[in-house]
Write a structure and sequence with these properties.
With 177 residues, the chain is α+β, with helices and mostly antiparallel strands. It has a single domain, classed as Peptide Deformylase. Helix content is 28%, strand content 29%. It has a 5-stranded antiparallel sheet. A two-stranded antiparallel ribbon has the order 4-5. Strand 6 and strand 7 form a beta hairpin. The chain is globular and about 45 Å long. 30% of the residues are buried. The structure holds zinc ion. The site of zinc ion (ZN) has 5 residues, from helix 2.
């Protein structure tokens, strides 16, 4: 079974202010293996369909520490599934990227974070891995790991900017009915 099988069932994406987005996800244990194996292909399918470059389990109403990412161009997919990801080092140097979020649709903001991170995680086989990232992948890893801790990118903005964005979102959602 490929982790990116395209016929995996799509999952509904939780939209702000859904409470699961503010919850801390729990560590995946060995007896969660079947649940995770079922979840990950659906997370990839849901992310690609959206389309997005990252998705955390909270966003599809699961509280397992699982994220999926693919920041590669469309014609050369590079799917990355991280179980129990943990930032073990970050650079003092900062970098700013424009971020958006599938749970906060159509709103974007410049967010400043450490430029480089080192992340430890388990792959789908349960093997410990480490990845060092910079640029878009670094920002994406930090954004998705934040989700597992109930943190959203708008939390990095000033209260003024955040309220402005979230008011815009509320208006959009209302218009959609
Ligand atoms: Zn997000």
């Amino acid at each position: 079974m490929s982790e990116t099988q395209t016929d995996a069932p799509l999952l509904p994406i939780m939209i702000y202010p859904e409470s699961v987005l503010r919850k801390v996800a729990r560590a995946v244990q060995p007896n969660d293996a079947d649940a995770v194996r079922a979840l990950v292909p659906s997370m990839f399918a849901t992310m690609y369909k959206a389309p997005g470059i990252g998705l955390a389990a909270n966003q599809i109403n699961s509280l397992l520490r699982v994220i999926v990412i693919d920041v590669a161009p469309k014609d050369e997919p590079a799917p990355l599934a991280l179980i129990n990801p943990e930032i073990i080092a970050k650079s003092d140097e900062l970098a700013t990227q424009e971020e958006g979020c599938l749970s906060i649709p159509d709103l974007y903001a410049e967010i400043t974070r450490p430029a480089r991170v080192k992340v430890r995680y388990q792959d789908l086989q349960g093997v410990k891995q480490e990845i060092e990232a910079e640029g878009l992948l670094s920002a994406c890893l930090q954004h998705e790991i934040d989700h597992l801790n109930g943190v959203l990118f708008v939390d990095y903005l000033s209260a003024l900017k955040r309220n402005m964005l979230l008011r815009k979102l509320a208006k959009q959602q209302k218009a959609k009915g």
